[in-house]
């Protein structure tokens, strides 16, 4: 079954290299006293919200803060409010009937795209100033991929089964094309990193689907020039990223029936089309026993990790850090775990991909900083909501019974795993110094509280 690639595409309008060597096995109980979290201190938040506004509509995206404004997605639109007062600064609504709006934050801008289920028509694209909503430029495209300094537009013609696509790179603030001519093919949105509505850092080379055969094959495009490098790789309708100037392609459904949860990685030198290495990693397993079938969030094109180093699972089900450039495992853990989140300092693993206890690892060394019991992750099909920001780890969870039954957002200290505070309500976003909570109000409506 290759249908997952289609499911990913439907939500995909947007979007520590180092020397290899023997992997280090990190013994969880031998790293330091901090490997086990301090006694949990449950503190229900007492401070009043800075402001509260009604939630309008539903969105799969979480809120963001850009300077002194808060970006609130509403499904059919996006509203920006003043961080201090909650007063509306600007607002955008979808133009297409039955459309859904997605946003990415990049270089002081908000990239807005629209998606209409079942439609192959080009969709509107707007890039606006984050603080004022002032239009910087607009266009339309079959698909859009946003990076921190650039926006890629994909334009396709012809019937869906025989589409011919080209990609152009634009400066994110002025929309000016930066390549001499469009690249043949459709650039992919897959990246390394958990970005939480921020536009990813633009890599030197990005995977692109090119029409050299039927079905399409994959290559790398030089993001500085738009030149597609000669190396090619077979597309398996899963994920592909640039690992330096090598093309790394994953296949989460090996055809020969090998071990369940296996994820094949085939990496090709993009300049001379020679094979660099093949490897087998493993995806997380849900509590039900089902494989997650991806090396990142459920149905996501993001690999948890940073640079060329990604989080994965070993054949025995324990965490590992793998370098896509060298094909080497950097370190492995000892206890079962599935990657949930991470940044350039830490990796967060759950006992399962959708539920279970949480453990935080130092990305560079593999040392387990702490472990805590399951805070109440809701389980599949919901994607676990976790955010690593500043000196905090924030988790959206659920209290199953009792007087406090319902959704909660728990804030943990990043260094120790100690619970700092918790809020009753749905986690709608968090940063180093803020958190947004959805709280049920009268008649079942929901208010967004900003703390």
Give keywords.
five-stranded mixed β-sheet, four-stranded antiparallel β-sheet, 451 residues, mainly beta, 1 helix, single chain, globular, disordered N terminus
Strand content: over 45%
Structural class by secondary-structure content: mainly beta
DSSP summary, beta strand count: 39
Task: Give the end-to-end Cα distance, rounded to a whole number of Å.
Answer: 44 Å
Can you characterise this structure?
With 451 residues, the chain is mostly beta strands. Helix content is 2%, strand content 45%. It is built from one helix and 39 strands. The protein has one helix spanning 4-10, and strands at 24-25, 51-54, 64-66, 69-73, 77-82, 88-93, 100-106, 109-115, 123-129, 135-141, 143-146, 150-157, 164-171, 183-184, 186-187, 191-192, 205-210, 217-222, 233-234, 240-243, 246-251, 262-269, 275-282, 302-303, 305-306, 309-313, 319-323, 328-332, 338-342, 346-350, 358-362, 368-372, 385-389, 392-399, 406-413, 419-424, 426-431, 434-440, 446-450. The chain has a five-stranded mixed sheet with strand order 1-28-27-26-25, with no helix packed on it. The chain has a four-stranded antiparallel sheet with strand order 2-39-38-37, with no helix packed on it. Strand 38 (434-440) and strand 39 (446-450) form a beta hairpin. The longest helix has 7 residues, at 4-10. It is globular and about 60 Å long. It starts with a helix and ends with a strand. The model is unreliable at 1-21 and 27-45 (pLDDT under 50).
